[in-house]
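Following up on my earlier thread - several people asked me to post the actual chain instead of describing it. Fair enough. Here it is, all 107 residues.
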Amino acid sequence: MGVKGEPGQEPEAKPDTATKINLTIRFGNELDDIAVKIKPTTRFERVYKAVAENQGRGADTFRLNWDGHRLLPHETPESLGFDEQEVVDCHLEQIGGGGGGAGFARR
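Reply from S.P.:
Thanks for posting it. Predicted structure:
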């Protein structure tokens, strides 16, 4: 076993911390998309906070979906197998509605 830095010794492999995931947060026709770069191990909780701050809303007023899957705050891009470029859809939560529509006849 050689001394660290000795000629002929290769440095230990370190995890690639430079890898970033490029997310595009898509709002549909209402607003412009947001581009976000995060580490594969970053929890989506941070993405929710960043989108909320950018939009001036609470983080509980919208949801993020990727490929039909609702992104939960404790999940990470790594845990879901994200590629380096991904598009995430943002949907505003709606409360209420109904009551008085064509399907509800009043008596």
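The mean pLDDT is 83. That should answer part of your original question.
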